[in-house]
Amino acid sequence: MKDFSEELKKLPAEPGVYIMRDENDTIMYVGKAVNLRNRVRSYFRSNIGRGPAIDNMVARIDHFEFIVTDSELEALVLENNLIKEHSPKYNTLLKDDKTYPYIKVTTGEDYPRILFSRTMKRDKSRYFGPYSSAQAVKDTIELLNRIFRLRTCNRKLPEDIGLDRPCLNYHIGQCTGPCQGYVSKEEYALQVSGALEFLNGNYGPIIKDLENKMKEASDDMRFEEAARYRDLAESVKSVAQKQKITGNVGTDRDIIGMARDGEDIVIQIFFVRDGRLMGREHYHMTDSLMENDGNVIGMFIKQFYSGTPFIPREIMIRNAPEDMEVIEGWLSEKSGHKITLTVPKIGTKAKLLEMSEENARIILHNDSEKIKREEARTSGAVSEIEKILKTDGLVRMEAFDISNTNGFENVASMVVFENGRPKRSDYRKFRIKSVEGPNDYACMKEALTRRFTHGMEEAGRIREAGEGAEAVRFSHLPDLLLMDGGRGQVNIALEVLESLGLDIPVCGMVKDDRHRTRGLYFNNLELPIDTHSEGFKLITRIQDEAHRFAIEYHKSLRAKSQTKSLLDDIPGVGPARKKALMKKFQTISDISRATAEELAALPEIPEDVAASIVSYFENLREKTDKM
Q: Which of 109, 355, 416, 620 is most buried (CB neighbours < 10 A)?
């Protein structure tokens, strides 16, 4: 499992949604959390009895991301939206939208009603929610009907006015009787408007009224009545936990939030599709001209939407660019429908914009810390090495290492670091040709000679080709040559460079008794180095990389050599038959124990070749027994 310690440190202790992805960037799991820091960290603790399914998922995590919300309810709804959109493999037990209730106001009717709903439909009604408690929604609907005296019947109005007697609610004063024509359409609309104002967030007067009634009932020792008012107030407060993640069904919009720190800018886009927040992306920008925020947003919109196939009808931003109308016209023409840039100041839209900006600020802070750490371990480390060596201009550093097994299959590796980062496209490996036996100095001399001879020849060809010719392979010479050893390795390198007429600084890595680097050998002096510094860590990374690359190459040659010595010497066994044998029997040992019949069962192996294989291994065993 990867080390996520640095990423875990950046998690905020806020509610939100976390998204686990594998190495292919596929979403494996979406979860919600009251505290993102605690919840996500829990996945990477050992021995906590999560079960095999979760352990398997955690082992496959390549990276994760998170979206901060204002409440647990918003996290719950966003989690649900993302699960429905992406169907992650490990979210199979989560329920769908129907878990969360909505309040539906049938504004498409002449005399609207307030209803409980489990789904949002494309109709003329207005939907509020979803909410976390079905009972709280039912209590609130009952309270609104009682306060604003709205109808609860299913009669079709105004067609059915006067066709039947008024219901009990009218007689007890809880309905104004639109079914009898006792209230005009305009008067009833004012009643509905009061309920809509409440659902849009003006809860204060109703909650205060309920609390006053509760206190009065309690003072008069009418405790059961006081308890009912208390429960109603709690239900209203539950519904008042307003969420912004789902809006009106059918709504498509992008919400663009921005955070900046000087020239560094992060743009965060929330994508709302069909009324649901379905995902987000963030982008880094650098504003060297220090434009105002509105113009930065304008620049981003032009660049981003020039390459997107879909543009929603509404794009929400915090600051209007100077050419806002021009941008709207361009987007409208590009998409084929009217596009509006809006700058919300209050309400749900403004809250959504604030949430987008908060996520942008978190990303900017986390990424800036990451960039600072990366600079410290790369360019900062190179600067430390320059100070130790009292030189400057170190860009390209090359390191070499030798690998063999008792002098068998001598190989050398060359790794390249530029500005403190590995440049793997310039790595090279050498199969030593002139040295037999374990002689690392002679192997290093050959590898360096070949490397710099090739470099000089390529440089000559480039000069002949004239201006515009590209440098390839070895023609880029290093600013510093790092040798995995002290005085001896350095002297070998200097000898090679002098013979070729090259002037390149050479630095050795001096080891202690435990074969750990303790200092640098440069210009005939051993220079101390702080083993806790970034410069030392960079030297160690270069050293380890050269060692790893050499060993990998040596292992591959050794494996080929071992396979060749046992199979390629058998008459009739070529590459295709060798491949078929290894695929069937897996190991040379298994092939050596196979009978002629078992070998001949392979379509690629004729009977005479099978007999040759059996005979070869029988002779080999006889020779071994005589030794």
A: 355
- Burial zone of 85 (CB within 10 Å; 0-12 exposed, 13-18 middle, 19+ buried): middle
Residue type at 261? D
Which residues share a beta bridge with 412?
Answer: 402, 430
Q: Is the pLDDT of residue 94 over 70?
A: no
Give the per-residue pLDDT at 560: 63
Place of tokens 């005939």: 524
Residues 6+ apart with CB under 8 A from 47: none
Q: For all residues of the chain together, what is the average pLDDT?
A: 82
CB 313 within 8 A of CB 253: yes
Look up the domain containing 211 and give its range: 102-239
CATH number at residue 298: 3.30.420.10
Question: Which region among 63-67, 461-465, 507-511, 608-612 has the lowest average model confidence (pLDDT)?
Answer: 461-465
Q: Does residue 130 have a cis bond before it (omega within 30 degrees)? A: yes
How many structural domains compose the chain? Answer: 5
Distance CA 33, CA 609 (A): 66
Domain match, 266 and 221 both: no
Question: Both 359 and 433 in a single domain?
Answer: no
The H-assigned helical ranges of 466-600 are: 487-499, 534-563, 575-585, 588-593, 596-600
What are the tens digits of pLDDT across the range 144-203?
Answer: 888 788 898 988 888 888 888 888 888 888 888 899 889 888 888 888 887 887 777 677
- Examine residue 247 and state whether it is found in any structural domain, yes or no: no
Q: pLDDT tens, 590-600?
A: 888 889 988 99
Tell me the one-letter amino acid at 49: G
Residue among 196, 231, 244 at smallest CA distance from 73: 244
The reported pTM is: 0.43
CATH of the domain at 611: 1.10.150.20
pLDDT of amino acid 183: 87
pLDDT tens-place string over residues 120-136:
777 888 887 667 667 77
Give domain status of residue 204, yes or no: yes
- Which amino acid makes up residue 20? M
CA-CA distance, 599 to 593, in Å (whole number)? Answer: 10
pLDDT recorded at residue 95: 40
* Residue owning tokens 């299959």: 409
Q: Is 129 in the same domain as 150?
A: yes
The number of C-alpha atoms within 13 Å of 149 and in the hemisphere containing its C-beta is 18
The answer to the question of residue 245 being in a domain is: no
Q: List the end-to-end C-alpha distance of the chain, in Å, as a whole number.
A: 48
Decide: helix, strand or coil at residue 27. strand
Judge whether 564 lies within some domain: no
